[in-house]
Amino acid sequence: MSRRDELAAGLATVEDRIAAACAAAGRQRAELTLIVVTKTWPATDVRLLAELGVRDVGEARDQEAAPKAAECTGLGLRWHFLGQLQTNKARSVVGYADWIHSVDRPRLITALDEAATRAGRTPRCLLQVNLDEQAASDDAGRGGAAPADVPALADALAAAPGLELAGLMAVAPLGADPARAFDRLAALAASLRSAHPQATVISAGMSGDLEAAVAAGATHLRVGTAVLGSRPPNG
Ligand SMILES: *Cc1c(COP(=O)(O)O)cnc(C)c1O
């Protein structure tokens, strides 16, 4: 099978899963955006995905994403940055990312706002929430703000002229019931919308739990493995 056929088959499988999840939840496919997470995979795969109709791609590391986005200009893609982000990468990331899903602290908001303003860009930003009820204060590997910090972070993000507050993002905690985690995220998103009506996005659901995310009201799914195959062990 050619790589193009493999990717087409992966996309078809994921679209079938999304269609079934939408039917079960009484939702329309058009309410959902599928972001194909291309981290660890080459720009040639991104190009094939674009040919197959993919419009949204996700990346998690700036060192990898910046050159890949540069290689893939002109394909009409929207780039979503999903990974933990250091303030010293803000300038690079706003250069190509149309969306940033992993905003989780005041200093990062300041750094992104400065970089975006200087670059004349206005990335859509999501606040990443840490839904791990076991975690003390930091879930070191995955990032995300404590739910209690979301209102103040949202106010800061909404007040940043270079950034657009679009909603919330979360990763279901390892070992947790994703349905319970995503219901919690949906409740946080509803209270966010009461303060910031424009913040309608809920980014949730990966290869292993996209059905639970669709059921809980996600608007954006971030799917890698189920489309592209298993990443190398440390990918
Ligand atoms: C890698 C990654 C994904 C995709 O995960 P899969 O299990 O491969 O679908 C989604 N979201 C984030 C934040 C990621 O880092």
Task: Describe the fold and architecture.
Helix 1 packs parallel to helix 8, helix 3 packs parallel to helix 4 and helix 4 crosses helix 5. The chain has an eight-stranded parallel beta sheet. Helix 6 links the parallel strand 5 and strand 6. It is globular. It contains nine helices and eight strands. With 235 residues, it is an alpha/beta fold. The structure holds pyridoxal-5'-phosphate. The site of pyridoxal-5'-phosphate (PLP) has 14 residues, from strand 8 and helix 9.
Entry summary:
With 235 residues, the chain is of the alpha/beta class. The chain has 9 helices and 8 strands. It has helices spanning 3-25, 43-51, 62-71, 90-96, 106-119, 150-159, 178-195, 210-216, 225-228; strands at 33-37, 56-59, 78-81, 99-103, 124-128, 164-169, 201-203, 220-223.
Topology:
Elements: H1 3-25, E1 33-37, H2 43-51, E2 56-59, H3 62-71, E3 78-81, H4 90-96, E4 99-103, H5 106-119, E5 124-128, H6 150-159, E6 164-169, H7 178-195, E7 201-203, H8 210-216, E8 220-223, H9 225-228
The structure holds pyridoxal-5'-phosphate.
Could you list some keywords that capture this structure?
235 residues; alpha/beta; 8 strands; binds pyridoxal-5'-phosphate
What is the CA–CA distance across the termini? 24 Å
Report the sheet-strand fraction.
Answer: 15-25%
Going across the biggest sheet, name each strand in turn. 7-6-5-4-3-2-1-8
- Number of strand segments: 8
Pick out the low-confidence regions: none
The quaternary organization reads as single chain
Q: What structural category do the secondary elements indicate?
A: alpha/beta
Number of helices, where a helix is a run of at least 4 consecutive DSSP H or I residues: 9
Give a list of the ligands: pyridoxal-5'-phosphate
Provide the succession of SSEs: HEHEHEHEHEHEHEHEH
Rg of Cα set: 17 Å
Shape: globular
Mean pLDDT score: 95
Main sheet specs: 8 strands, parallel
Helix content: 40-55%
